[in-house]
Specification:
transmembrane; transmembrane beta strand; Beta-barrel_TonB_sf; about 750 residues; Plug_dom_sf
Length: about 750
């Protein structure tokens, strides 16, 4: 009995020209095809998750076209239909024993024949172990590093905005606060992880993940898992999970430098190196992104506020420094260690509509908001494969800290300085986790796991007139289990259950089932899933205590967790020798105990109006349902098309009111064409319909009194590899210069152009 060796693997495809296969190089399977399965295991170890591809929704990862690598390799049409895998995801040795026709663990099949269709996709998020996307019932999209590079998307919000089932809302340009709505649910109902570490921001009021300062450098894959996922991932995975994996280094030493400049004072630099030597492998990417001069206030708001010339010309400035590191060491042939880290330091200076509202008080002065963010996410793993790969286990230890400072710069009309005493928002999270997978061969697999979290927040202000200090913490201990199997390779299924015990908001049991049926000899796959989820109240909502002149914000320690029951069902079809894939999924989610902000007036002896008290409470119910559809077509060996459509209906069932910032229709179309060797063009059209929102002008301040107008944007990118060392690239965003807001009151960038070069060795 041989022992399986596990090493963290990333993408199995490198788009490199030559060797007689135009536009395709067979990704090396190395030990993945051997009984040892060495390079396939450690990726799951570091991420601790399962990778899925399309599952009833848009298959956004595999387009049949390779893209530039992180080091700037030129994109080419995958004439050989290079298989694609969610880079950076872990794969256990058991995956190597999948049914015939399935890719080796952690990667998809590598096809060298131009006659082959779209490549298969392997997912790790849905089941916490690698499986084919076709064999799982859950709805998943996998975005690879090749796709990110081809489209030249430098920030995470730009990538997520194009994916089905998601609406991304950003207050202004790069660096602005960003919220992710999934299937009509609130942003804090989406759990976000990087390399197996949960990174929702505990320092925010809602505990939602803010993607505003998150750049894509170093990312190997992004998996978007839709539907209630608390059965595996616990609190905050009520609407779904976004799982991000760092790319792993392999092969020779490969350094690179990328320089980019363009509109809005953009000047970006990124450099790093990846590779492996002996038992050690590494990938390190450092980046600096700067923009200056983007004006985010719409003209109608300026007219309403009677803005002066200086205020109409004021722009935002953002400075972002990030580091992404992934290290691994193979101690023995079946035991390895891994370490990942992502660090962000950002300074964001803005002039917003709210600043402009106080023109009568500020005169000609500009009062700017200053936001500083320092974030660190670190996770280490130990991975052991035993009994010839029959038992695979991972032990992880992770730490996250997020520190934000908010203050103002400038002076009021009377010469008094603005709010120079900063507000501080700090959070920390410590996570210890273990899970093991038992491979029962033809009888399926059993997964068991346990996790423990310790979360802490600290909110304070140095304002001498109204000092504030709130500190609180909580502990969560959870255990979960899952069974996965198939019958005659026709009926595939998985079921899981999880128990969470929290020191603040009580205990919760959640579950999920997800079957998939392959109709023999038809290319038809029927998928379905059902499950429960819950969103925990944040420490801020439970315990915050802030007071000022005439107002106060009080936490509610009696808050209950929001709960959801949701299901979806979909059909996929493959035609034209797997060159054409299309499908659609219907989903329906019902939420109870919604946590919403509340307010009341407390009579005060020193005030004729009283004090306004703001807090939080459990109110109402909501229902979100809709359709997600996709079509992927490899028209030629050098030309591919991909489109997805999302229809969303989200209402508060207590008063039948529409939920804000949920557009009903969203359409995204992408095409990639490689007309000649080493040259690639990519185009994208994004359409979003109107939505209800908070107003920034007028006397009404209800949640849906404003109407956000629909918009569409057209983006183009080009990449050319001059030689093995130098590549040049360019992109044009919002070609038609559409002036649109999302959310209401915050303009998004108009027509913009960018270009640069990459040096690699």
């Amino acid at each position: 009995m041989s022992l399986f060796r596990c090493v963290l693997t990333t993408s199995t495809i490198l788009a490199v020209s030559g060797f007689g296969l135009a536009g395709a190089q067979a990704a090396t399977l190395s030990d993945a095809q051997t009984p040892s399965g060495k390079q396939l295991a450690h990726k799951a170890a570091s991420s601790g998750k399962t990778v899925k591809g399309r599952a009833g929704v848009s298959r956004t990862s595999a387009r049949g076209v390779s893209a530039p690598s992180q080091t700037g390799a030129a994109p080419q049409a995958a004439q050989g239909n290079v298989g694609q895998v969610a880079s950076g995801n872990g794969v256990s040795p058991m995956a190597a024993q999948q049914p015939v026709g399935m890719a080796p663990a952690g990667q998809t099949r590598v096809s060298l024949s131009p006659s082959q269709g779209l490549p298969e996709v392997v997912t790790v998020s849905a089941l916490r172990r690698p499986v084919r996307a076709d064999d799982v019932g859950s709805s998943v999209t996998v975005v690879t590093d090749e796709q990110i590079a081809t489209q030249q998307r430098r920030t995470l919000p730009d990538i997520l905005a194009r994916q089905p089932g998601l609406n991304v809302v950003r207050s202004g340009g790069f660096g602005g606060t960003t919220s992710i709505f999934m299937r009509g649910a609130n942003p804090n109902d989406v759990k976000v992880r990087i390399d197996g570490m949960d990174i929702n921001d505990g320092s925010s009021a809602s505990n939602a993940f803010d993607a505003g300062q998150f750049v894509t450098d170093g990312i190997g894959s992004i998996e978007i898992l839709r539907g209630p996922q608390s059965g595996l991932y616990g609190a905050d995975a009520m609407a779904g999970v976004i799982d991000i994996n760092t790319k792993q280094g392999e092969g020779r030493f490969k350094p690179f430098v990328r320089i980019e400049g363009g509109s809005y004072g953009t000047f970006n630099q990124a450099f790093g190196a990846s590779g492996s030597t002996g038992r050690f492998h590494y990938n390190v990417v450092l980046s600096h992104y700067r923009s200056d001069g983007f004006h985010e206030i719409p003209r109608y708001i300026e007219r309403y506020n009677e803005a002066n010339r200086a205020q109409r010309r004021a722009g935002d400035r953002n400075d972002n420094r990030s580091a992404n590191v992934k290290l691994g060491y193979d101690v023995t042939h079946n035991f390895d260690l891994g370490l990942t880290a992502r660090l962000i330091q950002a300074n964001y200076h803005t002039f917003t509509s709210y600043d402009q509202m106080f023109t009568p008080y500020n005169g000609d002065q500009l009062i700017r908001d200053q936001n500083t963010q320092n974030e660190a996410v670190v996770r280490g793993t130990a991975h052991l494969s035993s009994f010839g790969g029959r038992f695979d286990q991972i032990l992880g230890l992770g730490y996250m800290t997020n520190r934000r400072r908010y203050m103002q710069d400038g002076s009021y009309a009377d010469g008094e300085p603005a709010m120079t005493d900063p507000d501080y928002y700090r959070s920390t999270r410590l996570k210890v986790d273990w899970h093991g997978t038992v491979d029962l061969r033809k009888f399926g697999t059993v997964l068991v796991g346990a996790e423990h979290f310790h979360d802490n927040i600290n909110v304070s202000t140095d304002d001498p007139t109204a000092p504030v200090h709130t500190s609180a913490g909580m502990d969560t201990t959870a255990g979960y289990g899952q069974y996965e199997g198939n019958w005659n390779r026709i009926l595939y299924g998985a079921a899981n259950v999880r128990y969470d015990a929290n020191s603040r908001y009580g205990n919760h049991v959640t579950w999920r089932v997800a079957p998939a049926i392959h109709v023999p000899n038809t290319g038809t796959i029927i998928k379905a899933s059902a499950g429960s989820g819950f969103h925990a109240p944040s420490l801020y909502q439970l315990f915050v205590n802030q007071r000022g002149a005439g107002w106060a914000e009080e936490g509610n320690p009696n808050l209950k967790a929001e709960t959801m029951i949701g299901y979806d069902v979909g059909v996929e079809q493959k035609l034209l020798h797997d060159k054409l894939h299309f499908g659609a999924t219907w989903y329906d989610n019902k939420v109870r105990n919604l946590i919403q902000s509340s307010s009341y007036v407390l009579p005060s002896a020193g005030s004729a109006w009283g004090d306004y008290i703001y807090s939080y409470g459990n109110v109402g119910h909501a229902r979100m349902y809709g359709v997600e559809a996709f079509l992927d077509w490899k028209a030629l060996d050098t030309l591919s098309f991909a489109l997805n459509y999302t229809w969303t209906h989200a209402r508060d069932t207590e008063n039948d009111a529409l939920l804000q910032r949920r557009p009903q229709h969203k359409f995204n179309f992408n095409t990639t064409w490689s007309p000649v060797k080493d040259f690639t063009l990519s185009g994208n059209i994004l359409y979003t319909s109107g939505w209800r929102d908070y107003p920034l002008v007028g006397e009404n301040y209800c949640a849906t009194c404003a109407k956000g107008h629909g918009y569409f944007t057209i983006d183009l990118t080009a990449h050319y590899k001059i030689n093995r060392y130098i590549s040049v690239f360019a992109r044009a965003d919002n070609l038609l210069n559409r002036q649109y807001e999302n959310p209401v009151g915050y303009l998004q960038p108009g027509r913009a152009g960018y270009g640069g070069f990459t040096l690699n060795y």
